[in-house]
Amino acid sequence: MHRLRGWVFDLDGTLTLAQHDFPAIRRELGVPADADILTYMATLPADDYTAMKAQLDAIELRLAADVQPAPGAVELVRQLRDQGRRLGILTRNLQVVARSTLNGLGILDCFAAEDVLGREDAAPKPSPDGIHQLLDRWQLSPDEAVMVGDFRFDLEAGRAAGSRTCLILPDNPWPDLVDWHLPSCSALLARL
């Protein structure tokens, strides 16, 4: 872990306290209870997709206004930045929401503008597209980087990219996808 030069972070639930009530969001949007929201939206006719995208964008912007940092997240990001590590964000949110969230956390300055990727910048996780973009820009190989997140899609994207994976979650429901499992950003910070 100490030799990793590139750190790609999920945002919601990883660097922030989890605040998305996905069942409620699905109900508000009219998405089936067992469906991934972005995958479902991609199947819609163009007009329906556009309308639902506007609804989802509004929900995400509303939620971003109340964001709180996960314990240790701000300190973790700042320490990695101070150590000269490359830092990126790969989120299924809009980039403008990600930037607003990072600004609210007080760590937007730790990320180069082009290294904050939202769903309009890269194929949504679990696609490794965003990780590949960051690694290409940083001129790093996959084994020099780690994808840090709190959900299966983060880990699947990291695995598909060939990078290491770190799960930030009290439990580890996906042991086959995880190189490191820590219960919090504070625990990860202590391990560095």
UniProtKB/TrEMBL annotation:
SUPFAM superfamilies cross-referenced by the UniProt entry: HAD-like
Keywords per UniProt: Hydrolase
rRNA processing as UniProt keyword: no
Q: Which domain of life is it from?
A: Bacteria
One molecular function GO term is: hydrolase activity
Keyword Hydrolase present in the record's keywords: the answer is yes
Instruction: Identify this protein by name.
Output: HAD family hydrolase
